Amino acid sequence: MDSIRLTGVRAEATHGVLDFEHVEPQPFVVDATMFLDLSEAGASDDLAATVDYGQIAKRIVNVIEGEHVDLIERLAAKIADSILLSHRIQRVIVTVHKPKAPIKVPFDDVSVTIERARDPEGGTLASQIGAAASASASTSAANGSADSNAAATGTSAMPATHTAIVAMGGNIGDVEQTLRAAVVAIDGVPGNQVNGISPLYRTAAWGMEPGTPDFLNAVVELTTTLDADTLLNALQTIETAHGRSRKVHWGSRPLDLDIIDFDGETRDDPRLTLPHPRAWQRAFVLAPWADLEPAARLVGPHGGPVAELLARTPDHDAVERVSDSWILGGSVA
């Protein structure tokens, strides 16, 4: 199989078992070899037919700079999982070097190398997403096949297609690149297709400590054959791959993905309430959503036209539209 090799990706972080390693940053260096079919890219000269290794490098850095781990074995596994979120990549070999490890004899380097692949057993986070998506599609098809005409003709019903609005945000690390990588990952989940991406907004970190970095926010609209719970699982997997800790609910984070609306459904469930229970009062959600879909409506007891809800939020003048083309690259910093 063809491969792309990325070597020497560097970042500093506080990974390690010893107490001082939790507070004193040290360098980590990552090499990754990604295996995929490059025949289409070789014939078409089209970036969309391959993997953007710049995005992969940023994704690796985001994981290194993300949630603390004790072992570089765990760090390597998280990096491999994040790389396999790119649906074109079938297998990856990741080496994590820890050149400043606290070893009391002279040494040049210590490293861990792991290999992960998309496999039918669901051995990686990416595989688990794919397995869940396939199961969801199979269930939908099975339910639809009860139709006697479909059964008689030997055809199976297509899985139901849903429309979802997902809000994105973050304020740690290279947030723009993280959001771009998240869009790619969401689109790469089997059964998903991203159809719309809003402009990018900047929002002050309201209610947090002085000096907390601003948040960047956007909204994507997608169609999916997944049910809402399976989509939520996929989004949380993507968050984890980018260093998001579920222990942090009201603080800074590298990536936050929230389902705001799913087919206009209303649902009172502690794990996933629909629509999002605070969307109606969040300008950083409503403003990009209104840009993306000017006629959008939020359902539920606090619902209404999104543009009108936005006008009633107390902080609607505090969100700043910073880029219409952020998804294409560059920086608004």
TrEMBL record:
InterPro entries from the UniProt entry: Dihydroneopterin_aldolase (IPR006156), FolB_dom (IPR006157), GTP-CH-I_C/QueF (IPR043133), Hppk (IPR000550), Hppk_sf (IPR035907)
Locate the transmembrane regions by residue number.
none
Q: What is this protein called?
A: Bifunctional folate synthesis protein
Q: Return the SUPFAM superfamilies for the record.
A: 6-hydroxymethyl-7,8-dihydropterin pyrophosphokinase, HPPK (SSF55083), Tetrahydrobiopterin biosynthesis enzymes-like (SSF55620)
Catalytic reaction list: 7,8-dihydroneopterin = 6-hydroxymethyl-7,8-dihydropterin + glycolaldehyde; 6-hydroxymethyl-7,8-dihydropterin + ATP = (7,8-dihydropterin-6-yl)methyl diphosphate + AMP + H(+)
Q: What does this protein do?
A: Catalyzes the conversion of 7,8-dihydroneopterin to 6-hydroxymethyl-7,8-dihydropterin.
Q: In which pathway does it act?
A: Cofactor biosynthesis; tetrahydrofolate biosynthesis; 2-amino-4-hydroxy-6-hydroxymethyl-7,8-dihydropteridine diphosphate from 7,8-dihydroneopterin triphosphate: step 3/4; Cofactor biosynthesis; tetrahydrofolate biosynthesis; 2-amino-4-hydroxy-6-hydroxymethyl-7,8-dihydropteridine diphosphate from 7,8-dihydroneopterin triphosphate: step 4/4
One Pfam family, short name: FolB
Give the family per the record: Belongs to the DHNA family.
Which residue intervals define the domain 7,8-dihydro-6-hydroxymethylpterin-pyrophosphokinase in the entry?
A: 249-260
User: EC?
Assistant: 4.1.2.25, 2.7.6.3
Keyword line: ATP-binding, Folate biosynthesis, Kinase, Lyase, Nucleotide-binding, Transferase
For this UniProt entry, the molecular function terms from Gene Ontology, in alphabetical order, are: 2-amino-4-hydroxy-6-hydroxymethyldihydropteridine diphosphokinase activity; ATP binding; dihydroneopterin aldolase activity; kinase activity
Entry's Gene Ontology BP terms: folic acid biosynthetic process; tetrahydrofolate biosynthetic process
Q: Which PROSITE patterns does the UniProt record give?
A: HPPK
- The highest taxon in the source lineage is Bacteria
